[in-house]
Amino acid sequence: MAEQQRFDWVDIRAEKGLAQQAERAIVLGMDPGDGTFERTFAEMEELARNAWLDPVAMVSQKLSKPDPKTYLGKGKVQEAKELLVLEEATVVATSDPLTPAQQRNMEKILDTPVVDRTEVILDIFAHRARSREGKVQVELAQLEYRLPRLMGRGEVLSRLAGGIGTRGPGETKLEVDRRRIRNRISRLRKEIEEIGKRRRMERDSRDGVGPFRVALVGYTNAGKSTLLNRLAGAETYVDNMLFATLDATTKGVELPGGRRVVVTDTVGFIDRLPTSLIAAFSSTLEEARDADLLLHVVDAGDPQAAEKIGSVLETLDEIGALDLPIVTVLNKCDTVAKLDDGLPSTSEPDVLKVSARTGDGIEELIQAIDGHAEAGDRQIEAHLPFDQMSLVSELHERGSLLEQEYTEDGIRVVARVPEDLRGRLEEFAVKL
């Protein structure tokens, strides 16, 4: 139990009463000259603010590839060192991932903590995780990221006031015993594997017999949780921030014909999502892979929406979900007068404009979900005896009831149902 406490992450800021204080940071970025720098740097600024950093200055350099020793050239690193003093900043953040060697070399030159894009994202996840599953997934990703970076960072990181790099296992404790860290990683992997097995067993038990499954996917902060609330009439946690939702949340939604479907809100994607997080959250992401339909939620008012669509599709491909039916939901349309030309056209099949906040377009979206749910259904007329009421309940849950009539010895129904349920109704079918 002592070892469990040793490595469980804690939001040290909250314990110290510093939750509203942000550390002044210099942000470094590499411009590869391919037109992506503006977007990636703006996103890094937002990530930094979500991790309790205050970006007060930036240093950028046009490079086709990062310097293998110091990320940016020595002149730019020296410029960052001067800005640290001028701006009274206490940390440097980079808009790209760093190798352990780059990170150590920069910290020696700058004499201040250096955190990269991956570490910032991990820190945000550590702050937002609420469920046991989410905490285990984040802790595993943190430990795997930090293990090769232990040597030489303890003294530098100790100057951080409970912020980046201190949420999660403490640096000093990590350096005490690498073998224990590796053992902890092994146990966390086993726990996540058990979580994955339980999820797969649950999915296998409902395959072919459960309701139609819909998964909400999309870039972080696209409005997925708000859309789930609108569809289900629920009050799932919503906030206008990156990665507000880390745990998969599932709600039931009743369609116009009476059929019930389940809709799951999944963790938001982001460009270059750290591979350690993709691996750690694999059991959660499987909810998307094993759905019958994906709703790809897009913030239509985001100037970078088209590029973010590409990032989401790449992640879906990586987890094996790209071949599933997809409805593209252009959300937040109440905030834009005209859709950007780079977005999918609403004249295309399965592209819809909605506002989860106001409810505009939600009826059309529900009809689209209903259409996909009915796509594999077949109509049947059956006379069910009263001792088969469980079939009637399942018909209501999974099919569309067109007619229902009570008779002396049972119930006559006309319905559209999935093929497997139709097979179980065949013995009661009315012969025409």
Walk me through this protein's architecture.
- With 432 residues, the chain is of the alpha/beta class.
- The chain folds into 3 domains: 2-179, Rossmann fold (3-Layer(aba) Sandwich), CATH 3.40.50.11060; 211-373, Rossmann fold; 378-428, no CATH class.
- The chain has helices at residues 2-7, 12-16, 37-50, 74-86, 100-110, 117-128, 132-146, 154-157, 171-176, 178-206, 224-232, 275-280, 282-289, 305-318, 362-374, 389-398, 419-425, and strands at residues 23-31, 53-62, 91-94, 114-115, 212-218, 249-254, 260-265, 293-299, 326-331, 351-353, 378-385, 400-407, 410-417.
- The strands form 3 sheets. Strands 6-7-5-8-9-10 form a 6-stranded mixed β-sheet, with helices on both faces.
- Helix 3 runs parallel beside helix 6 (117-128), helix 6 (117-128) runs antiparallel to helix 7 and helix 7 packs across helix 10.
- The model is unreliable at 1-20 (pLDDT under 50).
